[in-house]
Write a structure and sequence with these properties.
By secondary structure, this protein is an alpha/beta fold. The protein is built from 20 helices and twelve strands. Helix 2 runs antiparallel to helix 3 and helix 2 runs antiparallel to helix 11.
Length: 576
Amino acid sequence: MIRKLMGCIREYKKPTLLAPIFVTLEVVMEVVIPLMMAKLIDDGIDGGDFHALITVGLTLVVMVIMSLAFGVLAGKYAAVASAGFAKNLRHDMFHNVQTYSFGNIDKFSASSIVTRMTTDVQTLQNAYQMLVRIALRTPTMLVFSLVMAFTVNSSLALVFLGAMPILAVGIYLIVSKAHPIFKRVFRTYDKLNNVVQENLHGVRVVKSFVREEHEKKKFGSVSQSIYDDFVKVEKRMTLTNPLMQFCMYSCIILISWLGARFIVNSEMTTGELMSMFTYAMQILMSLMMLSMVIVMIIMSRASAERITEILNEESDLHSPDNAVTTVPNGSVEFDGVNFSYSGKPDKCCLKNVDLKIPSGATVGILGGTGSAKSSLVQLIPRLYDVTSGSVKVGGIDVRQYDLDALRHQVAMVLQKNVLFSGTIKENLRWGNEDATDEELVHACKLACADEFINTFPDGYDTYIEQGGTNVSGGQKQRLCIARALLKKPKILILDDSTSAVDTHTDAMIRRAFLDEIPGTTKLIIAQRISSIQDADFIIVLDNGNITGVGTHEELLVNNEIYREVYEAQQKGSVPQ
């Protein structure tokens, strides 16, 4: 885990090294200053040496300025190093997520990935800044101060050695059980993000069903869990402060009592006693900062583990060596295909699928909810791999293709249409970033989108809000179809993507497909038989099994499921 995270330092190695160097120089100044103060008191004030007073005083001023400068530089480079480290973490995580297959994405929820890239990275950034600055400063200050204290008076310095084990054991007992609570807190943060995302995505449903109070209670419940966990862990962590105060003031009292006796016996000067008080504060403050570092490390460990999970996750789909980069044609063949999302053969949602689709054919796919229609077509661009059997495109197993080459030739209009924030032109050019304005218009005419785009004041430069919230469901579907057509694919998959358009527009789109892209293999998943009855043949799915393949007329005679759906839709239809 540490090695993986250290790989994200990269170009920020220089500030990472400079920060502790300046911290060390700052510490050196701080531990020498008390000695100079002792000299100032003993020689300049008690000794009445005016020259020593001026000389040592000016030296102290210079050392204080240098200490300040070193501290500022250490803070600057620590901030640069930690911010750069966090930037690289987010970069590496996001880029790795882009390589994930659908199976990898299913393993992590969207809310969990968002939490890891925000809250967890921020926690690790704070910990990293503390490590490159305070984590080095603390032991350095502790060691230097102890050495200087023993140099001034070894007998008094033993007081510190007696206090340190008490403080160390106390801090260990306090923070030892904090890590599991922090892990639980970050998992709860995932739930909180999920609740917020669901609410924002489904805000229209929430308002239409007047479920605001229910959503508030759901949010409040998760938020309360985070509050309870933080209160629990903070109660434990607050015990470190009284423990520090107890040890600190105990040491000061002992040093004052013993120091007074040493001064009376002329074994110690007033200046040396003052320096011992300073070293006492430095040593005990170092231990207190050490406790803070330990707390931050414990807290960040949970975040580090979660971030490393994202970085270590490898896509379960890879392009093979010597991959095929050219798709010959749009023919599709399923040969003994079984598919399970979990990869377990006994939990297959597609079973014993054998199917041949010639290039350029128009194929309808019909089936009830949960019959695995979407699962079937998602195997073609290799969004998932088959559990057993094979899927061939252009006569070649999809696992032999370069993934990018295969997916460039398979365009999908998914069941859940997604548009991104940007203009209509920018969204359409997801299909082909080099498409001309004329090609955009032509694709939109084929998808029957041109007619409504021209009603907008800004036409194709109309800005689409995130998720396409400022266009209707039917308009969104037509824009997504146009976007897919711009890829000029060999295979076009429409996953129930005309459900929100009227039957007349649906018919116009299908007619445009027939006339304009006859060589493209078209797979159309639909609930309306009218959308697929003119297809070359229709596949009927039921519970992951193909129960019928044939034309509309053949299936009316031979397939009971198809006939029942057709008769039900005919009874519910209104004569035109």
